[in-house]
Amino acid sequence: MRTISQVAELTGISKRTLQYYDEIGLLKPSELTQSGYRLYNDEALQKLQQILFFKELGFKLKDINEILQKPDFDRIAAFKKQKELLLLKRNRMDRLIQLLSRLEKGEQCMSFKEFDLSDYINALEDFKSNQTEEVIKHWGSIENFEMFIQKIRDDEDHVAKLAIQQFGSIEKYTEAMKHNLEHFSEIIDDWYSQVPEEMRTEDKFLKLASHKGEDVTSDSIQNMVKEIIAYAHGNAPSELVGDDNHYCKMMIDLYSNDYLKRVFDTKHGAGCCDYIVKAFRYYSENHCS
């Protein structure tokens, strides 16, 4: 058994921090003396070690507590995962140090490979595994979400550059994205509820797509396209919509995008995007000046 002072000396953690861990139920002492002094055995020290590894990886105390209290918590499996994540963190830090050394020498280095998104990609993989229903609901299928993750991997330098510009660092970007993933459903519902009813055009495109198989040159189909364009002019910012031809081109580009096309068609039926593109292309070629 070790006293709280001995544990503090051994670990470098202050006595006040250990007392706080006790107060919030994160790390209880193994027993109390008759005088009320805290004592810790080897098992408690092993738990403290686990807590410190989680803290090093950026976990919040509340989350650490929840993880450790799970009945199926596997200490050895947790160590393996923590080792993997710490190695990723070390490798990233090594690359950053190498980059700083080059910049210190006056070299002009515009590479963003040093700012890798491994932590964010891992969070996306966890989201895919643990929030399957949400993934399928919003992306159409697990395969579509995997395609989304792969696109981030393929364009990692560009995403990292934007992340740093907008958030200041990869760490802050990853923290924000993790929060969004943890509260994904609430965020989506809140965002959609703030979109004015008159701005929601998805139903109009779905109505158009539901007529796939019909001749896009028919008056009824072209009138639907005309209504969508008029709706956009009446409800969306003019600088975004532009003239009829510009809007048609935007919709053709949008529904021709391989990734978005795959998601939309998975949710609403194969061929929907191609039909929308054909309808807008015919309108653009025959009704726009």
Outline the structure in words.
The protein is mostly helical and 289 residues long. The chain has helices at 4-11, 15-23, 42-56, 61-69, 75-104, 118-130, 132-139, 142-154, 156-167, 170-182, 184-194, 202-209, 219-235, 238-241, 244-256, 258-268, 272-287, and strands spanning 2-3, 31-32, 38-40. The protein has a three-stranded antiparallel beta sheet with strand order 1-3-2. Helix 15 packs antiparallel against helix 17 (272-287). A hairpin with a 5-residue loop joins strand 2 and strand 3 (38-40).
Largest sheet: 3 strands, antiparallel
* Anisotropy-based shape: elongated
How many helical stretches?
Answer: 17
- Tell me the span between the first and last alpha carbons: 86 Å
**Which band does the percent of strand residues land in?**
under 5%
**Tally of DSSP β-strands:** 3
Our Rg estimate from Cα atoms comes to 27 Å
Lateral arrangement of strands in the main beta sheet: 1-3-2
Give the helix level as a range of percent: over 70%
Mean pLDDT: 79
Written as H for each helix and E for each strand, in order along the chain, the element string is: EHHEEHHHHHHHHHHHHHHH
Report the structural category.
mainly alpha
Low-confidence stretches: 194-199
